[in-house]
Write a structure and sequence with these properties.
With about 45 residues, the chain is an all-alpha fold. It has helices spanning about 1-5, 10-15.
């Protein structure tokens, strides 16, 4: 899925983050939960 690739995710990850989404009925403007890919960096303290 292009959305997953755009954000550096696998479709399975995107699906897990959005369990209620009916992917065959996805519409323009529909909101999805996207997490940032792991960068290996830690947050500043």
């Amino acid at each position: 899925m292009d959305i997953a690739r755009k954000f550096g995710l696998r479709f399975a990850e995107l699906h897990e983050l959005n369990p209620g989404v009916k992917w065959e009925r996805l519409q323009i403007g529909q909101k999805l939960i996207i997490r940032a890919p792991e960068t290996g960096r830690t947050a500043p303290q």
